[in-house]
Design a protein that fits this description.
Strand content of chain A: under 5%
Radius of gyration of chain B: 17 Å
Distance between the termini of chain A: 166 Å
Strand content of chain B: 15-25%
Shape of chain B: globular
Largest sheet of chain B: 4 strands, antiparallel
Helix content of chain A: 25-40%
Strand order of the largest sheet of chain B: 4-5-7-6
Number of helices of chain B: 6
Distance between the termini of chain B: 37 Å
Oligomer: heterodimer
Structural class of chain A: mainly alpha
Largest sheet of chain A: none
CATH class of chain B: Alpha Beta
Number of strands of chain B: 7
Order of helices and strands of chain B: EEEHHHEEHEEHH
Shape of chain A: elongated
Structural class of chain B: alpha+beta
Helix content of chain B: 40-55%
Largest interface: A-B, 12 and 24 residues
Amino acid sequence: MTTTDRVQKLEALLERVRKNRTAAPRRASAAVAAPIARDAISAQAPPPPVAPREPFASAITPPSPPAAPAPTPPSPPTMASTPPDVQPPTTPGWQPEPGSAVQTRPATLPPESIPAEEISDDDLLEVTTIPPGAAESVPPAAAAAPAQPTYSEPDEPELIVSEPPEDEGPVVEPPVLEPDAMEVSEITAVGVRVSAATLDEALAGAAELEGEALEGEHEVPIKTPPPESGPQEALPPTGLEAGRTPDVTELEADLMSPPSMGPTAEQLGGTIELEAPRGPELEIDVTIEEPPPASLEPAPAEELEVALPRPSMQSGLYDMTAPPPAQYPDPALAEGPPSVPEPREKATIPVEVPSIDSPARTARPALGATDVAHVALAPPASSRSFVELLDASLLA
Amino acid sequence: MGTPRFDPTHSLEFNLDRGSVKLSGSIERVLLPADALAALVRGADVETRRDFARRLGTEAGRRVAERLDGNASAEAVVEHLGGEVALMGMGSLGFERWGRMLVATVQGSPLRGEGDEILAGIVEGALQRAFGRTASVVPLQRDDSLVRLLVVSSSTADRVREWLGSGVSWGEVLGRLNGAGGAS
């Protein structure tokens, strides 16, 4: 896009903002409006068929149908090219202003004649979709800022605000808004941005408002919805931040994919298939070369090695009585003051020492004279005479 | 009074002028070769040999009785009687006690085995003449140089000869004699 085109776009945008300047303040209330009551919605005419909400609604509203020509032909087809005669299905008390760019979401898809690539980044800056919950997430300070004319309270309420019942306390029921109602605030932001007098101010204001809008969109609802409200879906960011948001659909697809059985084709992109070996088969020589016997001579010391001192004795021990080597002199010990024992108190303890003259002895009782030893004499070998022996032998 | 020692001094007298040999003043003696005497004894009958041996023993007993009385110890008897046997040249006499049994031993008899009955007769004659006891001496056991002679009564001598003839060892004979004596 050239600078000229960009300037033309901005000029067209400025023109539209100027047209909407009168009606824009009433749109600002939608940004800070409370959830729309269902009664009010039901009271109006039956809305056109609304396309089901997609989980990741595009931040870009489809271009208007060809039946709604843009007021400024040179401007690119944008969402703001809604003809003023189109009656949006809003509340009965609210009427779109003639110069307002607010339009309803087309019930049908845009014709294919309009290429989708015509939607540029500038269009993204111009139209920003604020989710229904963002209405509550707007900081109170921003909502109550009266200095901004675009955020001033509307003269007459265009949307019926139904306060939550008191018994429910801070719990806010999720609003059910029509898609058209959501886009009311979008255009309102654009109107604020173009309220500047010059083009530069308009650009600066548009950038600020874009940032504020993005901040408001990313904020989480302050009030926690009740459990009975069911699971809440966090809407994805829109605008410039949408590009940095990961595609959850793809991530889910990755998670749901079957376990990988190996590297993917992308991972194998740089794989080089090796050719089969050609030539004679090679055999590994398993011969183990025994290292030469270590010589008894010590190996030369390397630079960072320090050779330990050799034992001073043949037995491998160190002679402790030998003086230390020259490279290890005796440590110089600081001589401290001589220790002087402190005087102690002396006391004499009386001890009873027995006298040596009269030792106490225990004597064994005296025994009378008695024959301690008893000697049995052997009888004579043959007291009998030879005749007796002869007679004894004869009587046998 | 103590037992006198056996003194063989001048017991054997050779009179070379007269050509006679006398033993302690007794009748003359004849010096004969032992093998000749053995041959003579071997040719004599049992009673001749027994008389011959008894006469030799009676002469020795008479000389022992002249020096010893009835209370002489065994040692004294061995000394004197043994001395007299030695003067005859019949070997060295001794005594053994196997329990109650009295066994006389003769060592180095020149007659060897053929002269055991002669020795037994000499002991019988000496005991009879010296101590007045009639005893029967039976050759019990013999080896190369020693012969054991059992001194028993005449009745016991017959049983011992019967036992020894039946093959009973001399130790068994001594056992039986000691057992029988103790039992009786």
